[in-house]
Amino acid sequence: MSLIITDECINCDVCEPECPNEAIYQGEEIYEIDPNRCTECVGHFDVPQCQIVCPVDCIPLDPNHLESQEQLMDKYIKLVQEG
């Protein structure tokens, strides 16, 4: 599953630079996560880095984008190949 940023986001700017897949971007009101680029840091780290640094704990799993660890790894491999 990819992650999602909830409306509790305070736009503190700490999550975006931590994302190794460049999946996090500034939306109209708060930061958002591109589910096509989010691998929950699979392939890079053991745990999602954005969740670790978020001071308000507003980055849960996105129930609308269910993915297994294998699917997340496949997505990571495709992103690496795209370069």
Whole-number mean pLDDT: 96
Q: Helices and strands, in N-to-C order?
A: EEHH
Ends: how far apart? Answer: 22 Å
CATH fold-level label: Alpha-Beta Plaits
Query: What's the structural domain tally?
Result: 1
Structural class: alpha+beta
The largest sheet is: 2 strands, antiparallel
Keywords: 4Fe-4S, Electron transport, Iron, Iron-sulfur, Metal-binding, Repeat, Transport
Protein name: YfhL family 4Fe-4S dicluster ferredoxin
GO molecular function: 4 iron, 4 sulfur cluster binding; metal ion binding
Structure characterization notes:
The protein has 83 residues and is an alpha+beta fold. It has a single domain (16-82), classed as 2-Layer Sandwich (Alpha-Beta Plaits), CATH 3.30.70.20. 23% of the residues lie in helices and 7% in strands. The protein has helices at residues 49-53, 69-82, and strands at residues 24-26, 31-33. Strands 1-2 form a two-stranded antiparallel ribbon.
Short description:
The protein is of the alpha+beta class. The protein has one domain: Alpha-Beta Plaits (2-Layer Sandwich), CATH 3.30.70. It has two helices and two strands.
List the SSEs and their pairings.
Blueprint: E1 24-26, E2 31-33, H1 49-53, H2 69-82
Antiparallel strand pairs: 1-2
